[in-house]
C-alpha cells in the first residue's frame, strides 16, 4: 500500500530509504534495491542495521531467480554491503549472517559460510538452524563428509537440533562417500526427528538400501537396546508371539523419564503464567485424584461447531463425550476441565444443574479459577496421569514453548483423541494402533511412512525395506511367499494393505545371496482397492528385477 503524499513528506531520508527497500524486498527487485543503496552511499546517508539486513536479504533471496550470468556480481555486491556494515561498527544480526552465509555457499565456499557462523559470538548473536544450513548443505553437496560432520558437531554444542532436510543431507553424503558407520547413525536420527519422510528422503533411502555396499554391510541388522525393548514390548502387548515370521509396527511413546520431564516443563511454564497458588492447588488436587484414564477439554467439546446465530456452549455435546469415554474406560469417569466462569454460567440454567451436580459429586469436574488459562490444566493432567486427552485443539501455541516440536508431536500422536459430531452422532478418532514414524524391526526390516500429501492415515503410502538372509521369489499365481513382508505392517486394529505396489528386488552379484526388497503401498480397508504408487528402481550396479 502506497503511503499518502503528506506522510511521505514527513519521512526522513533514512525512513524513506527503509520504506523503499521494504518495497523492493516484497517484489524481489534486486536492481532497484542496489540502485537505492548506491545512491545512499554517494549522498553520504548513514545506514542502520535495518537497511543492511534488508539489503543482504534481498541479495541472498534473489539468487534463486537470478540468471547465472549475474549471480557472481550479486554475490560480490552482497559481500561489499556486509563489509561496509562491519566497517561502520554495526553488529550483524543472525538474519544478516544467515544471508551472507547463503551468499558464500552460493559461490561454493562452505568454509566461509561456516566461518561466519563460528564467529557469531563476537557479534553477540546466536545461530539458528537456518544459519548452519548454507555451510552444511554446501559440504554435503561437494561430498566433503568430514567437514559436514564437523558442522553437525558445532550445532550440537550450540544446542541447535537437526530436522529432516539436514539429516537427509548428512545421510546422503554418508551414502555417497561410503561411510557405512555414519549411515546407520543417521537412519536413527532421521527416525527420531521426523514422522513421515519427504519424497527426497525416500529417494536417499532407496539409493542406500539398493546399493551393494548396504547389502555387504548388513545395515539394520539390529537396533539399539532401548529400541529393541520397545519393539519386544510391542510384540508381547500385541500378542503376536505365536505368529511365527510375522511382525507388527510398534507404538512408540515417550518413556517414563521423558514423561516426568514433560510434566515438569508444563508445570514450570504454567506456574510462570498462572497465579502460583491456583496451579499449585491443582497439582495437589491431582495427586489425590490420579485414577483418571482420560481428560476432556470441556470448552473445546462444548463449543464444537457452535459458531452460528443461536449457537452457544453445548452441554449436551459434552455429556455425550463424557458418556462415551466412560463406557470405553469400563465405567471410569473422565476428568473434565472447565473454566469456573463457564461453570457458573451453565448453572444459571436450571436444566443443567442436575447433570453438573452429578459430575461434581463424581469428581468429574475441575473448574479453573477466574483469570486462568484452562489449557495448562488439561494438558498437565493428561501428561502427568499418562492418559488420553479428548480435544481437537492442536496446541500449536504450546509446542515450541515446551520440549520441542518433535518430542511434543510424539506425545500428541499417542495420547490425543479427536472427535467429530456428524448429524448429532459422536465419532471418536482414537490414536492409531501403531506409531507413524520410521521403524526398524529386530530382523533389520525398515518401515518408512511417506509424506505424500495424504492426511488420511488409512491411505498413507509406506516404504517397506526388508533384508532377509534369503528371499523366496513369489510364485506368479500367489502372494503367499511375501506374506512375511506384508504381515509386518499389520496390527490388531490396522487396515491391511490391499495391494503391494512395485516391488524391486536387488540381488547382490556374488555368493552372499543377500537381497533387499522394496515395497510401496497404500493402506486401505480390505474391501477397497488401493491405488498403487509406482517408484523407480534405485540406481545400482546390482542386478534389478521388478516383480
TrEMBL record:
**Keyword GTP-binding applies:** no
Top EC class per UniProt? hydrolase
Tell me the ranges covered by the PRORP domain, including all copies: 247-464
Question: What Enzyme Commission number(s) appear in the record?
Answer: 3.1.26.5
Q: Which GO terms describe its cellular component?
A: mitochondrion
Q: Where is the composition biased (Polar residues)?
A: 489-501, 511-522, 538-547
Tell me where on the tree of life, at the top rank, the source sits: Eukaryota
For the biological process aspect of GO, one term held by this record is: tRNA 5'-leader removal
User: Is the keyword Lyase assigned to this protein?
Assistant: no
Could you tell me which residue ranges the PROP1-like PPR domain spans? 5-215
Renumbered to this chain, region (Disordered) spans 486-547
Q: GO molecular function of the protein, one example?
A: metal ion binding
Co-factor(s): Mg(2+)
Show the catalytic activity.
Endonucleolytic cleavage of RNA, removing 5'-extranucleotides from tRNA precursor
Keyword annotations for this protein? Hydrolase, Magnesium, Manganese, Metal-binding, Nuclease, Repeat, tRNA processing, Zinc
Family classification? Belongs to the PPR family. P subfamily.
Q: What is the name attached to this protein's record?
A: Mitochondrial ribonuclease P catalytic subunit
Amino acid at each position: 500500500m502506497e503511503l499518502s503524499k503528506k506522510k511521505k513528506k514527513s519521512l526522513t531520508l533514512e525512513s524513506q530509504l527503509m520504506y523503499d527497500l521494504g518495497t523492493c524486498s516484497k517484489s524481489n527487485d534486486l536492481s532497484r534495491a542496489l540502485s537505492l543503496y548506491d545512491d545512499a552511499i554517494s549522498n553520504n546517508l548513514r545506514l542502520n542495521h535495518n537497511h543492511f539486513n534488508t539489503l543482504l536479504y534481498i541479495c541472498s533471496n534473489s539468487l534463486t531467480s537470478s540468471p547465472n550470468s549475474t549471480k557472481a556480481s550479486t554475490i560480490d555486491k552482497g559481500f561489499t554491503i556486509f563489509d561496509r556494515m562491519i566497517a561502520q561498527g554495526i553488529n550483524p544480526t543472525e538474519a544478516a549472517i544467515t544471508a551472507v552465509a547463503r551468499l558464500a555457499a552460493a559461490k561454493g565456499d562452505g568454509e566461509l559460510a561456516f566461518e561466519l557462523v563460528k564467529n557469531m559470538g563476537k557479534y553477540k548473536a546466536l545461530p539458528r538452524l537456518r544459519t548452519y544450513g548454507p555451510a552444511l548443505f554446501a559440504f554435503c553437496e561437494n561430498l566433503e563428509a568430514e567437514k559436514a560432520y564437523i558442522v553437525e558437531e558445532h550445532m550440537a554444542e550450540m544446542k541447535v537440533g537437526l530436522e529432516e532436510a539436514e539429516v537427509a543431507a548428512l545421510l546422503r553424503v554418508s551414502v555417497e562417500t561410503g561411510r557405512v558407520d555414519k549411515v546407520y547413525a543417521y537412519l536413527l536420527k532421521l527416525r527420531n526427528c521426523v514422522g513421515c519422510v519427504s519424497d527426497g528422503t525416500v529417494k536417499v533411502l532407496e539409493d542406500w538400501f539398493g546399493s551393494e555396499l548396504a547389502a555387504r554391510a548388513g545395515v539394520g541388522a539390529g537396533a539399539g537396546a532401548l529400541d529393541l525393548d520397545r519393539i519386544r514390548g510391542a510384540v508381547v502387548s500385541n500378542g503376536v508371539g505365536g505368529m511365527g515370521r510375522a511382525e507388527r509396527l510398534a507404538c512408540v511413546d515417550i518413556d517414563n523419564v521423558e514423561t516426568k520431564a514433560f510434566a515438569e516443563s508444563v508445570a514450570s511454564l504454567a506456574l510462570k503464567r498462572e497465579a502460583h497458588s491456583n496451579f499449585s492447588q491443582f497439582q495437589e488436587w491431582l495427586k489425590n485424584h490420579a485414577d483418571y484414564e482420560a481428560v476432556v477439554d470441556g470448552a473445546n467439546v462444548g463449543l464444537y461447531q457452535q459458531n452460528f446465530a443461536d449457537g452457544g456452549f453445548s452441554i449436551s455435546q459434552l455429556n455425550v463425550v463424557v458418556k462415551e469415554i466412560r463406557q470405553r474406560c469400563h465405567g471410569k469417569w473422565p476428568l473434565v476441565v472447565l473454566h469456573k466462569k463457564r461453570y457458573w454460567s451453565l448453572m444459571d440454567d436450571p436444566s443443567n444443574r442436575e447433570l453438573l451436580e452429578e459430575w461434581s459429586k463424581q469428581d468429574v469436574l475441575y473448574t479453573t479459577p477466574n483469570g486462568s488459562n484452562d489449557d495448562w490444566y488439561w494438558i498437565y493432567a493428561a501428561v502427568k496421569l499418562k492418559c488420553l486427552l479428548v480435544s481437537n485443539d492442536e496446541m500449536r501455541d504450546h509446542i515450541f514453548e515446551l520440549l520441542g516440536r518433535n518430542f511434543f508431536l510424539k506425545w500428541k500422536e499417542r495420547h490425543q483423541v479427536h472427535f467429530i459430531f456428524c448429524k448429532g452422532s459422536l465419532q471418536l478418532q482414537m490414536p492409531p494402533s501403531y506409531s507413524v514414524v520410521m521403524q526398524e524391526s529386530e530382523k533389520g526390516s525398515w518401515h518408512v511412512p511417506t509424506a505424500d500429501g495424504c492426511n488420511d492415515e488409512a491411505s498413507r503410502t509406506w516404504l517397506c525395506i526388508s533384508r532377509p538372509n534369503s528371499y523366496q521369489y513369489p510364485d506368479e499365481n500367489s502372494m503367499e511367499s511375501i506374506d512375511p513382508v506384508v504381515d509386518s505392517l499389520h496390527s490388531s486394529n490396522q487396515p491391511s494393505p490391499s495391494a503391494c505396489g512395485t516391488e524391486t528386488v536387488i540381488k547382490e552379484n556374488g555368493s552372499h545371496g543377500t537381497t533387499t526388497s522394496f515395497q510401496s503401498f497404500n493402506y486401505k480397508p480390505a474391501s477397497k482397492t488401493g491405488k498403487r504408487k509406482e517408484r523407480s528402481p534405485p540406481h545400482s550396479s546390482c542386478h534389478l528385477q521388478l516383480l
